[in-house]
Design a protein that fits this description.
heterotrimer, A mainly alpha (about 80), B mainly beta (about 400), C alpha/beta (about 170), A: mainly alpha, B: about 400 residues, mainly beta, 16-stranded antiparallel beta barrel, two-stranded antiparallel ribbon
Chain lengths: ~80, ~400, ~170
């Protein structure tokens, strides 16, 4: 069931993505222009501002909580308990 | 049931492969992206809590080889002195070291970035090797970023003091994500990841306890027994918002579910506030909650009560709350090395764990009536980053 | 159970494939500034406070560079543009830098560290960026002596200045 839902969500992501990949998105113009990216480009806006620290805290939680995945720090095991 | 799941997983992987092909075919369009800046980070981390002290260094290096290729290296050490509740109830305090290393390669072609990463985590009784590959593509005027990734880990598990014990497990990961810029101040991301484990998934030292009235202690112990597979699925929604007076607000919500019947939610709020040109303050609040695995129990009614038995507090019903504070000092130009931009940061996290159905077996109380376990931990990270 | 699950799979997979192919097949070029069209005129104030208009520069080959201090390739390109300006100034080529930041303090701080001799303008309301349909940062637009757009370079990578030089040399010979 989990995997069926995952694949459906993946299909939706790709349908949406396929819109963007083609010039067919032109009925909708990108509404934030490249020259309007000043705030979004500010280093303080980066969730991965300190990657080495993020890797550590993600590992701390991974070793103590059951939930894993979707946290942007890739994967890899350890025998941590 | 297992066969059906395998069929579904195989079809899912084909779907993924198909999407990867379509993705790479469409990676034709005009102006290109840019690789991230070169950097080096050196960190010291320390965890104190629950009877455990873990500390050690970590290093991260990133260097562009040319406009399209970058390499990265990561090395991390955990030195563990443990007298945790698991250890104290069935064993004696121990000391251990874990080394982890990762090497990564990044290739940028036009608007698509490919990441390839291999890693290894090594400790006395556990060797984990992993490989990850992901693809990320900027599209729709760079407002949308699509990403896909796969990962595989192979683990060798042994047992200290037992020459004969040798087990294995494998982990497969598939992830997808979409990052979308919504306004000049707001961007959101939606990430999903599916993880499948198979093999020896439990801990070779941990035991479960059961009521045993035939012995004075009243409680007997037996090895934990876990299923040979675990399938999990995570979805995370995150958002970053730029506040007009120059500060950033972060939010994420993640939902997790797996085939062991664990459902978990976590929600996090973050705030970053720069002070002038030299300081940045970080604030974080996170709440995590999970319910128990179907085969978990703190105290089984008798020996071999179920096919699968677990007493790992990580599989119990619990929640944890994290409060985090951080400060980053942006080192001014005249104090910098070789004119390279650098920063020094200090971060502190305080986490309290509250277990709803895991009891503290070291407490002096009747079996099954010990107080529910809980502990808190202080985590410090001190690090120095250079951009060159 | 197995058949139901597999068939749900197959149909959603086929749907993804069909939609992706259809969209890919009917894709069209993203709207852009057309080569050969008259470069949109504008008047902006430069760092010295003087108002300059593009139309008054007819007869000169214009290299318009849209940049921002938050954009790494833009920052890298600045010294390159200065060298380029020095080299081709005498041949009737003028470089103009157009900063697109809505709040340009960071841009001004960046300029203070460089010593640029070519004019820099501030397009804080982004009217010029919009009329030039800037789709990448940086964007370099080369306008011929007659005021028509001759080339648009999107982004900047090492060696782009050689491409600018090629276009300039061809325009000089005209």
């Amino acid at each position: 069931m989990i995997v069926v839902t995952f694949s459906r969500v993946l299909s939706i992501v790709f349908i949406l993505g396929a819109f963007g990949l083609t010039g067919c998105a032109q009925p909708i113009e990108p509404w934030v222009k490249p020259y309007q990216r000043q705030f979004l480009a500010d280093p303080i806006m980066r969730t991965n501002r300190h990657p080495i620290a993020n890797k550590h805290i993600a590992h701390v939680f991974d070793a103590r909580e059951s939930a894993r995945g979707a946290d942007g720090t890739g994967g890899g095991g350890c025998g941590c308990n | 049931m297992a066969q059906e799941e395998v069929v579904v997983v195989v079809i899912n992987r084909f779907n993924l492969f198909l999407c990867l092909c379509i993705f790479s075919l469409c990676a034709f369009f005009s102006h290109a992206g840019v690789l991230e800046q070169d950097r080096a980070d050196v960190l010291y981390h320390r965890y104190d809590g629950g009877g455990m002290t873990i500390d050690g260094p970590a290093i991260l290096l990133r260097k562009k080889v040319n406009e399209s290729v970058a390499i990265s290296a990561y090395y991390y050490v955990d030195t563990i002195s443990s007298a945790s509740v698991d250890v104290m109830s069935t064993a004696s305090p121990y000391s251990e070291e874990r080394h982890e290393g990762q090497l990564g390669l990044e290739y940028l072609y036009d608007k698509t970035t490919m990441f390839f990463n291999i890693g290894q985590s090594d400790e006395a009784d556990y060797l984990a090797k992993s490989v990850n590959f992901s693809l990320s593509h900027d599209t729709f005027g760079d407002l949308t970023q699509l990403s896909l990734g796969v990962g595989f880990s192979d683990n060798d598990i042994s047992r200290n003091g037992d020459e004969v014990f040798a087990e294995q497990s494998q982990q497969y990961r598939v992830r997808a994500g979409i990052n979308q810029i919504l306004t000049t101040n707001l961007s959101i991301a939606f990430n999903i990841e599916s993880i499948a484990d198979e093999g020896y998934l439990n801990n070779p030292y941990r035991t479960v306890r059961f009521i045993d009235n035939s012995i004075p202690a009243g409680v007997g112990y037996q090895s934990e027994v876990y299923p040979k597979t675990r399938n999990s699925f995570s979805t995370k929604l995150s958002a970053s918002y730029y506040l007009p007076y120059r500060a950033a607000l972060f939010f994420h919500y993640r939902y997790f579910t797996d085939s062991w019947q664990i459902d978990a939610n976590d929600i996090e709020l973050g705030y970053r506030h720069p002070l002038g040109k030299t300081l940045e303050l970080d604030l974080k609040l996170r709440y995590y909650q999970q319910n128990q695995a179907s085969f978990y129990s703190d105290l089984f009614p008798y020996q071999d009560a179920q096919n699968y038995l677990a007493r790992d507090k990580e599989l119990s019903d619990f929640n944890d709350i994290t409060l985090g504070l951080g400060v980053t000092y942006l080192i001014p130009q005249h104090l910098s090395i070789k004119g390279w931009r650098s920063e020094a940061s200090l971060q502190w996290d305080y986490i309290t764990f509250n277990y709803k159905n895991f009891r503290d077996p070291t407490a002096q109380a009747a079996v099954g009536e010990e107080p529910l376990y809980g502990f808190s931990t202080h985590i410090i990270r001190a690090f120095f980053s250079v951009y060159f | 159970m197995k058949n139901i699950v597999s068939s749900k799979y197959n149909s959603s997979r086929k749907l993804t494939l069909v939609i992706a192919i259809v969209l890919f097949a009917i894709s069209s070029q993203v709207r852009a500034l057309n080569l050969g069209q008259l470069a949109p005129d504008f008047t902006l104030k430069n760092t010295q406070g003087k108002n300059l208009s593009l139309a008054e520069q007819r007869g000169q080959i214009m290299v318009l560079n849209f940049w921002a201090s938050w954009c790494a390739p833009c920052r890298k390109e600045m010294p390159v543009l200065q060298t380029f300006h020095n080299k081709y100034k005498a041949l009737g080529v003028t470089v103009w830098g157009i900063n697109v930041e809505q709040e340009n303090q960071a841009g001004q701080d960046f300029l203070a560290d460089l010593n640029l001799s070519f004019p820099i303008f501030f397009d804080a309301h982004n009217k010029v960026s919009a009329s030039y349909q800037v789709q990448a940062m940086p964007t370099t637009v080369i306008v011929g002596r007659s005021g028509h757009v001759r080339h648009v370079f999107r982004g900047y990578k090492d060696g782009y200045e050689k491409k600018y030089a090629q276009v300039i040399k061809a325009l000089i010979r005209e």
